[in-house]
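Standup notes
- DV: blocked on the single-chain target, sequence here:
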Amino acid sequence: MRKKNRLIGMVCMAVALLAGGKAEACTGITLAAQDSSRVVARTIEWGGSDLNSQYVIVPRGYGHQSYTPEGIDGMKFVARYGYVGLAVEQKEFVAEGLNEAGLSAGLFYFPGYGQYEAFDTSQKSSSLADLQLVSYVLATCKDVEEVQEAVRNVHVVAIDPRASTVHWRFADRTGRQVVLEIVNGKSCFYENTLGVLTNSPGFEWQLTNLNNYVNLYPGSAQAQRLGGRELKSFGAGSGFLGLPGDITPPSRFVRAAFYQSTAPVQSTAFQAVLQGFQILNNFDIPVGVEFAEGKIPADIPSATQWTSVTDITHGIIYFRTMYNSAIRSIDLNKINFSQAAYKAVPLDTAKQQPVVPLY
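- DV (later): unblocked, structure below
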């Protein structure tokens, strides 16, 4: 019992860390290639501490049990599908992942707007921690339709009320993508044909806010006269004058929508993967901008702790981290999920950007 209480205390401490940091930021985009391949990409930011992220390989038949505010005594479920995930703080807390059926799932911070139902100890056998919902759907669902049905059968709860709520993005090989938000204890799914997601406010508000930028377009603005003076662009790209450049979620949503929508369509999935990393380079958040002067809490190189790009069509997850900008990949097709052992491995063993000397 003492060991169990100590474990729960460590988990609550980890979750509490997710409540105290700034830059609760995530930016997600979606790309399609000319060969009909589908790619989803995202960043994950946390400026308050190192998330100690890991990649996990979960085989078919692996048994899970959810945390609750009372312990590791929530819902049990078994992996029908093998999956690979990128986890934060705890190996059970998968923030982004892909399963062998081609279902992609990810959580995005949603502070101040989401509200789960209150935990009821009499329903603990069907209660699932919000930070374990990604694992649950990857383990048990093959597509978005099954995700919607699965969520109806669980009670999503918070482990620690101090932590931020989250919302979720789910996408499958058909190209369908939905956003799940839980507000006032009610689950709401939104079709995401745009393919962009950030944080608060809610998804529908973010879509409405795009109308404030109807004047933006790619290319350069035409010269015009104002009174007797000619006005013309200083350089290329003046059609995007007015694009917000700050790091708030609404501004990142707008930038992501316009960068994604104006990007040339690539020929292959791999080219789209590389394009995803290049677009998301624009959303890296340096440590310092989100804190008051002299209040930076952590010695980390970036608030953007990792960026991932998932080739849903071909079953490959790519990622780079704040400690290593080299792109690494995990090919699900090379994993025998019926025989593989569960594995959790740090994304970075050396926490220092490698430099290759040429001379």
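- Follow-up: The two ends are 58 Å apart (CA to CA).
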